[in-house]
Amino acid sequence: MQSLKIYKKPVNHALAAFLFFVTCIGLVLTAFAVNLYELTFVPLSVCLLIYLVPTLIITPLLLRLIFRQRPKYVVWKCFVITLSNIIGIGGVLLYVFMAVNFYDVDASRQFTQKLSIVSTGFRKYSSDKIPYANVRYHNQLKGFEFPTGGPPLADFNFLQMQINHGYFDFDVVKDLKLAK
Questions:
Q1: Where in the chain is the domain with CATH 2.40.50?
Q2: Which residues is 121 bridged to in the sheet?
Q3: How far is CA 120 from CA 103, 117, 135, 145, 147, in A?
Q4: H or E stretch including 112?
Q5: Distance between CA atoms of 41 and 99, rounded to whole angstroms?
Q6: Which are the contacts of 98, defined by CB distance < 8 A and separation ≥ 6?
Q7: Which residues touch 40 (CB under 8 Å, ≥6 apart)?
Q8: CATH code of the domain occupying 106-179
């Protein structure tokens, strides 16, 4: 029989609840980061590195803090906590990176660029068809959506963009117009 004085709980419930809260916040912020990604020319590899690498470094440290003893089903619990950390911590870090790059722009380094449209089409969301146009900018293919009910995209050959340099020197689209 163990004395109650030396008994330690096998799981730190306060830290687990905090990580659940961070995961929920990270999931919401990831959706906002995706919206900012659509208006910036940040390579996908940079976003994935920001999203994955810090969480894979932090996860082994958090596992030692959450589980004071070796739990049952250790592989499954480690997988769930790693996934939770990727969504939570990675989502927060990715949103902070994208927001700082997008909102803290250098207005003195603003320029206008006219890019040729590579392809056009429609993206189908439920019953709506949203027109989009793809352009190539610095060897990066980027798609931009336009409101429905406007002029057909097939009539235009260029996109005229007002571009600012972001805080981390990734370009940010501030204004977008169709041009012939």
A1: 106-179
A2: 132
A3: 29, 7, 9, 10, 14
A4: strand 106-125
A5: 13
A6: 33, 36, 37, 40, 42, 47
A7: 98, 101, 102, 166, 170, 171, 172, 173
A8: 2.40.50
Encode pLDDT of 37-89 as tens digits: 999 999 999 999 999 999 888 888 877 777 666 666 677 777 888 888 889 99
Summarize pLDDT for 15-38 with one digit per residue, the tens. Answer: 778 888 999 999 999 999 999 999
13: pLDDT strictly greater than 80: no
What mean pLDDT is reported for the chain? 85
Question: In the chain, how many H helices and how many E strands?
Answer: 3, 5
In terms of Cβ atoms closer than 10 Å to its own Cβ (0-12, 13-18, 19+), residue 21 is: exposed
Cα gap 22→16, rounded to integer Å: 10
- Predicted confidence (pLDDT) at residue 180 exceeds the cutoff of 70: yes
Token pair for 151:
């002029």
What number of residues does the chain have? Answer: 180
Contacts of 56 (CB under 8 A, 6+ apart): 82, 86
Number of other CB atoms surrounding residue 164 within 10 Å:
17
Q: How far is CA 159 from CA 53, 122, 143, in A?
A: 35, 17, 11
